[in-house]
TrEMBL record:
Record keywords, A-Z: Aminotransferase, Transferase
Name of one Pfam family that matches: Aminotran_1_2
Aminotransferase class I/classII large domain ranges (all copies): 34-384
The protein's name: Aminotransferase
InterPro entries: Aminotransferase_I/II_large, LL-DAP_aminotransferase, PyrdxlP-dep_Trfase, PyrdxlP-dep_Trfase_major, PyrdxlP-dep_Trfase_small
NCBIfam families linked: PRK08068.1 (NF005977)
Required cofactor(s): pyridoxal 5'-phosphate
Length: 392
């Protein structure tokens, strides 16, 4: 068969680091090993029944069998605006300040296409969610890393970025609660971000994928809650984590009108909007999901407590995450994050995500997900207990 040459944009796409890990796990399982997978970010709970029931009802609505309106149904945009008002006391104009997207992965790649030309610069967190890199690479733009260090609560330090780089930057990606470090942002940090963005004309994209998941009674801060945020950027919010709807592919962007318009413009050319019945079920989740989200956060907090106590009990040093459904664990001496992840697979059948997969500053850590049952997490701790060393 003919092998056609890929476009340069496609050739530039970064390697999917975690595909290698998935292969390794499959091989180990094929060899008869029973694995506990703490390496992935796929929510383990089902979508709440009131949402799936809503989809079932909506599927028979013939209005939805036709093409959806290009920008999505106005009722979903209204539900988004009401959700932001209820949850964050943020006012949004549903028509001009909300864009409906096919999952936030899509939006995060599209936004680079909207604002970056060849040679432009984007600021990305390192460690960070790898899809930020994909859009920047496709646009043939440059990526400037903003290292996230424990000593600075895994927040970027703008005073460590040169004026020249800040001046060149057109886009900045941020993500709190953070994947992979589980850090949360402060109001002061967002205020500083807005100052930097205003001064240097940078468009801020705040990825709020774990916005619903905060612990110890602390609700993670929306970027849009901070005065001036709408002027300098957007927040992307996925239904995947808040409502266990990862397979449904529904997300939205909210905030700056020109960014919303750009996202809708690019989407007009790629797609017609999501299946109307999915939009109706998404609206149902946003309107009536408060209780189910509360239960989900309680579940993750129980698992977090269990893992933190479990690790401490067997002599491992861990910081209790404040948000997201991840823990960011320092690795023992003598390993790299990859060699430690391999070691855990081979020796105790535990899968974790090597920190280096999230960028060079992720080295020294592995990411652990809270996405297994309490029984399996207990078993995971028992397996760690059999190791003859810790990270102390
Ligand atoms: C930080 C972050 N952003 C975005 C996404 C993508 O979410 P989705 O494409 O399901 O909306 C994920 C998924 O794991 C994530 O961890």
């Amino acid at each position: 068969m003919k092998q056609f040459t890929y476009s340069k944009a496609l050739e530039r796409l970064p390697e999917q680091f975690f595909a290698k890990l998935v292969d390794k796990v499959k091989r180990a399982e094929a060899g008869g090993k029973e694995m506990i997978n703490l390496g992935q970010g796929n929510p383990d709970q089902p979508t709440p029944p009131f949402v799936t029931e809503s989809l079932k009802r909506a599927v028979d609505n013939e209005v939805y069998h036709k093409y959806s309106p290009f920008k999505g149904f106005p009722f979903l945009k209204r539900s988004v605006a009401n959700f932001y008002k209820r949850e964050y006391d943020v006012d949004l104009d549903p028509e001009t300040e909300v864009a409906i997207m096919f999952g936030s992965k899509t939006g995060l790649v599209e936004v680079s296409q909207c604002f970056l030309d060849e040679g432009d610069t984007a600021l990305v967190p390192d460690p960070g969610y790898p899809d930020y890199w994909s859009g920047v690479a496709m646009a043939n733009a440059n990526m400037e890393k903003m290292p996230l260090f424990k000593g600075n609560q895994f927040l970027p330090q703008y005073d460590q970025i040169s004026e020249e780089t800040l001046h060149k930057a057109k886009l900045m990606f941020l993500n709190y609660p953070n994947n992979p470090t589980a850090a949360t942002a402060t109001k002061a940090f967002f205020e500083e971000t807005i100052d930097v963005a205003n001064k240097h004309d940078i468009c801020v994209v705040h990825d709020f994928a774990y916005g619903a998941i905060g612990f110890d009674g602390e609700k993670p801060l929306s970027f849009l809650q901070v005065p001036g945020a709408k002027n300098v950027g957007v927040e992307m919010y996925t239904m995947s984590k808040t409502f266990n709807m990862a397979g449904w592919r529904v997300a939205f962007a909210v905030g700056n009108k020109s960014v919303i318009q750009a996202l809708e413009l690019v989407q007009d050319h790629y797609y017609v909007s999501l299946f109307g019945a999915v939009q109706e079920a998404a609206a149902e989740a946003l309107d009536n999901g408060e209780e189910s989200v509360k239960e989900l956060v309680e579940l993750y907090e129980t698992r977090r407590n269990q893992l933190v106590e479990g690790f401490r009990d067997i002599g491992w040093r861990v910081d209790a995450p404040q948000g997201s459904f991840f823990m960011w664990l320092e690795i023992p001496e003598g390993f790299t994050s990859e060699s430690f992840a391999d070691y855990l697979i081979d020796e105790i059948g535990i899968v974790v995500a090597p920190g280096v997969g999230f960028g060079e500053y992720g080295e020294g850590y592995v990411r652990i997900g809270l996405l297994e049952s309490e029984e399996r997490l207990r078993e995971a701790i028992d397996r760690f207990r059999t190791l003859s060393f810790t990270n102390q």
